[in-house]
Amino acid sequence: MADLKIQGLAKSYRDVRVLEGIDLHIASGEFFTLLGPSGCGKTTLLRTIAGFQHQDRGEIIVKGERIDNKPAHKRDIGMVFQDYAIFPHLTVAENVAFGLKARSLPKAAMDQRVDESLKMVRLEGYHARYPAEMSGGQQQRIGLARAMAIRPTLLLMDEPLSNLDAKLRIELREDIRDIQRRLGITTIYVTHDQEEALAVSDRICVMNKGNVEQIGTPFEIYRKPVRRFAAGFVGTMNFLPARAENGRLMVGSQSFPFAGLQAERAIEIAFRPENVILANRPLDEEVLHLRAEVRKVTFLGREAHYMLTTEAGEIVAQVADPSSDFIDMEGKPVDICLPLAKIVLFDRNGDLVMTGAAR
Amino acid sequence: MSRRFRFDLWTFVLIGAWTILLILLVWPLSSIVRASLIDNETGALSLVHYMEIFTTRVYQRAIGNTLIAGFGGMMGALVLGVALAFVTTRFHIYGRALIQTLAVIALVSPPFIGAYAWIVLFGASGVVRKGLDSIGVSIPPIYGVAGVIMVFSLKFFPHVFLITSGALAAINRSVEEAAESLGVPPAKRLFKITFPLILPAISASALLTFVLSIADFGTPRIIGRDFNVLATEAFNLFGGEVGGNPGMASALSMVLIFLSMTVVFAQRWVLRRNVYHSNMIKKPERQHVTGLRSAGLHLLAYGIVLIGALPAFIVVIFSFRRTSGPVFQPGVSLQSYEKVIATVSEPIWNTLTFSSVAVVAIVITGTLVGYLISRRPGVVTGALDALLMVPYIVPGIVMGIAFITRFNDPPLALTGTGLIIILVVYIRRLPYSARSVAAALKQVGPNLEDAAVSLGYAPGKAFMKVTVPLILPGIMAGALMSFVTAMNELSSSLVLYVGSTITMPVRIYLSVMDGEYGTASALSTILLSMTAVAVYAAFHLSGRKESALL
């Protein structure tokens, strides 16, 4: 199989820098996701790897060989597009065989590969159909089969699910993950949907404004963000302004001892809604106590969301399996606890100061 | 490398396209501008022709009549077209395919055939008029302003119908339902919601019918009698038996171009903030109606299309009538056809050769220029695209005059050749072809080519294997429609023809003017049949999309 190295890749459009010195190393067989808001450079990076655009600086190395001087059609890279890009004048089977023809496979081998690829995406029996008769989900399955059929050294996917409805999205992303695992093709997946990224990836690269913010496993990205941007972009995160002062953490008018916080400076404290504990009950871990008022309760069945106003700012708390009396709390005061092990501190630049767990 | 090669090829196309437009469009039209500003006697630069327009009654009347014909034709076509579009998209009407076919027949039949067929029915010696006269009912002959406006309305309503039906079918039904739930009664809703939403389509078709009406030469000439318009006046001045007055003809042509341009800008102004993007959620439904209302709606729809297609039927029927000179006799006969074959078969061959050559040239350049416009945007290409708008607003008669003044002398002495007739059709129709290719390419989207490249095809091969097959039906349909327009071109050919390069429309026009109605009918029927074959083929290629005709 093939690993991919990207070194110092940079690109500008006129005077706008869309990629600023990207370095990545993607292991063979890895499912690697580029995650970020629109305009962060993720699609430009993908299309540069594919060869549809050219970098100003930097190298792209596959299996130890530079490919960035090769034209796109010689890079042996499979691509799946957001708008499917299925050839409407060809049947399903002809679409899948399209790349195989360019490789002059013998007829029998080609037919076998087409059958196998269609079976893999659960479209067996659709050989003679035309794409226009098929749904969006089916069309993207053809796109996947077409890209996989050539057994590319790299598979690139550019927001393949964003044109599909929610249910199909979940179904197809599981299929993509299963097929990728089975064939072991090194895959780079672009999405702006953080939940999708968490669900399918081996590793995620969070990007913003042409820069890499953080690279890590889904768990690391969610639980151990190293940049404020990554923390805020993936999942819901509460941020409250705070101050560090001589080993103490000041939030609002409260002050807590916090080892390791020496320099005096303004910082931000970040924590997930599911880590906010409502009601002031004794806990066997160290916590921050804050007083809050419940502004609004949103009941979602499995859980309820509380909009809370604390003296330091607004936060969201999530309560699993809410009981009936929790629901009538709008307008009432409440005590909240934040376990120190679950909070993260960022400085003014958005860099990690320290985590509560590392205290 | 392939990048380098493409750069060279498309640069070459760009230079070629500019050369063609400069020689065949800018240069000839500049002769009109120049001639309109030169005093015939002194040869000096002067505004004497323009002054004459504002002091001579006959020219003022021509301008007034042109506006009357333009607005009259436009209003008539709008009323008929919008009514038909509304009835067929919003109510369940039996035989919608038939209605569409009849509308298409009305659309593609040569414009002057309408005028001539109405004369056959309601002219001085018209069949219907005479019949009514024999039972004591006397109606005036159809000649004059009313006839011209009627013919324009019935000739051009299919354009309005096809453009607005598309827009009406694309209105989100929820918007209309929302209006209704807010308490707006249905009739009011039509004017408050529905029509404003399709205003872009209505104004586009209004513009088109106005430009077509003021540019039309055959209709006012045949049915207008002393109803002079700018197009007929310019033609008379130019080709007048006693010397003619090219300067004056040019000045009137400039006025005609100016009127078209004004309307184009007026339409832009109307639409300056009326671009609606709607998320299609619910398609409008066809309402089922019964009883009298249903009968009335059917009568309206079929009435419009049958009267519109009537001239085509009349011409076919009368081509099989026995004639004696200009007078039709009772009984069926092939004598008109025999006469055509024996004496005037040359126009048929001329028409076929000229149109074929023009269309081949149009398709090749149109495809290349269309690709240039949509895939290689830039300042120079943008200017080219803007220049391509010009033929849309220059009437055929003006183009003919421009060509004959410019290409009369060496180095390009083309007067009297078939080539000059071909070149006028070529330059007039090229923008349509280029625009439709550009639009088709926008539909294909560059991702399809990228997909082919990622699967291992070099860019040139990817274009040939993916893009070309996808736009080919569109190109072919466009080519056939260009062929239809080329075959039916009257006004520019009338200025440019000589005895040996006479075409069918010119021959038909001359026959009508000479009162040889039998010959005119037979030739019209042949022209109509050739048109029908081309249109049918175009439909077949474009998957029965009427939009291919526009």
TrEMBL record, chain A:
* KW Transcription (keyword) present: no
ABC transporter domain ranges (all copies): 4-234
Query: What SMART domains does the record tag this protein with?
Result: AAA
* Pfam families found in the cross-reference section: ABC_tran, TOBE_2
Biological process terms from the Gene Ontology for this record are: quaternary ammonium group transport
Q: Key word Transport present in the record?
A: yes
Give the record's GO CC terms. ATP-binding cassette (ABC) transporter complex, substrate-binding subunit-containing
Check the record and name the InterPro entries matching this protein: AAA+_ATPase, ABC_transporter-like_ATP-bd, ABC_transporter-like_CS, ABC_transpr_MalK/UgpC-like, Mo/tungstate-bd_C_term_dom, NA-bd_OB-fold, P-loop_NTPase, Transp-assoc_OB_typ2
| Entry GO MF terms | ATP binding; ATP hydrolysis activity; transmembrane transporter activity
Read off the Gene3D superfamilies from this record: 2.40.50.100, Nucleic acid-binding proteins, P-loop containing nucleotide triphosphate hydrolases
| Keywords tagged on the record | ATP-binding, Cell membrane, Membrane, Nucleotide-binding, Translocase, Transport
Q: Which family does this protein fall into?
A: Belongs to the ABC transporter superfamily.
- The protein's name is ABC transporter ATP-binding protein
Q: Which organism is it from?
A: Microvirga brassicacearum
Which lineage ranks, top first, belong to the organism behind this chain? Bacteria, Pseudomonadati, Pseudomonadota, Alphaproteobacteria, Hyphomicrobiales
Automatic annotation (TrEMBL), chain B:
The protein's predominant localisation is: membrane
Residues covered by the ABC transmembrane type-1 domain: 63-267, 348-538
Tell me the GO BP annotations in alphabetical order.
transmembrane transport
- One Pfam family, short name please? BPD_transp_1
Q: Which Gene3D superfamilies match?
A: MetI-like (1.10.3720.10)
The answer to whether keyword Transport applies is: yes
Membrane spanning residue stretches: 7-27, 67-87, 99-122, 142-172, 193-215, 251-271, 292-320, 352-374, 386-404, 410-427, 466-484, 490-510, 522-541
The record's section on PANTHER family has: FE(3+)-TRANSPORT SYSTEM PERMEASE PROTEIN FBPB 2, INNER MEMBRANE ABC TRANSPORTER PERMEASE PROTEIN YDCV
The name under which this protein is listed is: Iron ABC transporter permease
Q: Which organism is it from?
A: Microvirga brassicacearum
